[in-house]
Write a structure and sequence with these properties.
This protein has 259 residues and is of the alpha/beta class. The protein contains 6 helices and 9 strands; from the N terminus they run ααββαβαββββαββα. A 5-stranded mixed β-sheet has the order 4-3-5-7-6.
């Protein structure tokens, strides 16, 4: 390949990356996460990822490892919850700053405190892997949280995945979901479980929250471009458009951890 072709390819890749970034900037949290995780193929031996939730095996997804076995990060004697973390060195300084700002937002709103890991056994390993995902709650030892570089490191995406790591599932799996959302199952991409309802969630008995940063949008994981969720009784109610934690997200977090 001659130099002219190489330069042309470099320019093409740069334009493509710029276009991807422009698209992601106008997407909601759920749209961005879905885009990041679209068509991901996991290699043998890797974590099992479903939507944006990680499991150590395909069979674990049928259990409820969080509420069944206890998934909260422990509270210290001073009343704070210290969560050790490391950040991969593949991120740019700008991306690291965004990640740090997302973590810092929990300090400002709760008793959660993210601290750089020294020798702690249990910790979050924030990496740029294939897509964006997290375990639900503390699973012990090194715990991967993926924020794919370079188009998916955003403040709201970080809050969404960190809330998973703290023990929260998606809002549309709320136990009283069917009073507020009608799921259009015929429009959902086969294999997606993001709309599956759970009766055993850490929702702290709060009312349904259309504005949660954990809520997917009406076209989330659509197989045909048609809505997968419709608000009821008023179909015009917007949801899945959050760009940061809602007031109810913060209330649930503080209630769960006794902040």
């Amino acid at each position: 390949m001659d130099m002219k072709c190489i330069l042309g390819l470099v320019v093409l890749l740069a334009v493509s990356a710029w276009a991807e970034e422009q698209i992601n900037q106008v997407l909601s949290t759920s749209e961005r996460i879905e885009r990041a995780n679209r068509n991901i193929v996991q290699s043998p031996g890797e974590l099992y990822i479903e939507d944006d939730i990680a499991y150590r095996s395909k069979f674990e997804r049928n259990a409820d490892p969080c509420t069944a076995s206890g998934c909260m990060w422990p509270k210290s004697s001073d009343g704070n919850v210290y969560i050790p973390y490391i950040i991969s060195n593949v991120y740019s300084s700008r991306e690291v700053a965004i990640i740090e700002r997302g973590l810092q937002s929990f300090h400002d709103l709760s008793c959660i405190r993210f601290v750089r890991r020294t020798s702690q056994r249990d910790y979050l390993n924030i990496q740029s892997l294939s897509g964006c995902y997290s375990y639900i709650g503390r699973v012990g030892y090194e715990q991967e949280l993926s924020l794919q570089q370079s188009s998916y490191v955003y403040y709201d995406t970080i809050q969404h995945e960190v809330l998973h790591a703290l023990g929260f599932n998606h809002e549309q799996t709320h136990s009283n979901r069917d009073q507020y959302i009608r799921v259009e199952w015929q429009n959902i991409t086969p294999g997606s479980s993001v709309h599956s309802q759970s009766l055993n969630l850490l929702n702290q008995e709060t009312t349904y929250d259309y504005g949660s940063v954990m809520h997917y949008g009406k076209f989330g994981f659509s197989s045909n471009g048609q809505p997968t969720m419709v608000a009821i009784p008023d179909a015009n109610v917007e949801f899945g458009m959050a760009t940061e934690m809602s007031e109810k997200d913060i209330i649930q977090l503080n209630q769960l951890y006794g902040c």
